[in-house]
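Tokens help. Consider this.
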Amino acid sequence: MTRGPWHVAVLMGGWSAERPVSLSSGEGVAKALESRGHTVTRIDMDRNVAARLAETRADVIFNALHGVPGEDGTVQGMMDLMGLTYTHSGLATSVIAIDKQLTKQALVPHGIPMPGGQIVESESLFTADPLPRPYVLKPVNEGSSVGVAIVTAEGNYGNPIARGSVGPWQDFPELLAEPYIRGRELTTAVLGDEALLVTELRPKSGFYDFDAKYTDGMTEHVCPADLPPEITEACKAIALRAHQLLGCKGASRADFRWDDTQGLEGLFLLEVNTQPGMTPLSLVPEQAAKLGIDYATLVETIVEEALNRAQGPDKAGNGDG
């Protein structure tokens, strides 16, 4: 597949909690493609998205949606039924990867280190803790640290958690409870079949939550991270293996916690993001740039991979094999 010019529909926005991030990602992608001479149609997803995609008749859809329903397989299934070519992962991969518990079930049997945990009814939290403190509560199928709470012995949620305290238990009927892993926040991008670099994320205060991710100046990015070589290589190997086991396409990003007092035994994969952000503060473009891949080239590489895949044996949508 030659590099165009292509007609690309950039699908962005939607109605998840990550809508502002998606709009920023999508606009960045659109401008980058236009700078390289491609035709771009911007589509802010609404309930008429199928009709709008059909009318556009683009060569490929750049899926810049984040969260539900753009990252959980819903939109992927719709585009598969329509016979459209789109970037990033397909239906089955998206369904599994956005669900943190399903991701564990898919990866842990293959030796990928992930924290233990259990699904709990939010109502039960007001009676007793599901795990010894400190522990983490998070929605099962949200990204960007939406709705994450760290419950500590000295925290202000109460013991047991007070019904009136602000937290994800007010918005989600079920949550995933995991042991809290002390230490450092690391992330590794995968592009195609190559793990890029490892970035350490150092929030200026608190932990790496939604605001820390997307507010300029709230988090220091150390890229490449200053780590022992065996930890760097382990992050890259685990990120690539998880990308392959889940059947990810295009770009993905693996997020880790590392207890640096425990060596390799302290490294845990938290989740795999199948549609990582493409905003000015996003980690995949940052890692690519460190390796000499500018933003526009990164976007073109993701689009080209989708177009090449559509010409291969897997022609019905993106597939997941």
Summary: DSSP finds nine helices and twelve strands in the chain. The longest strand covers residues 194-203.
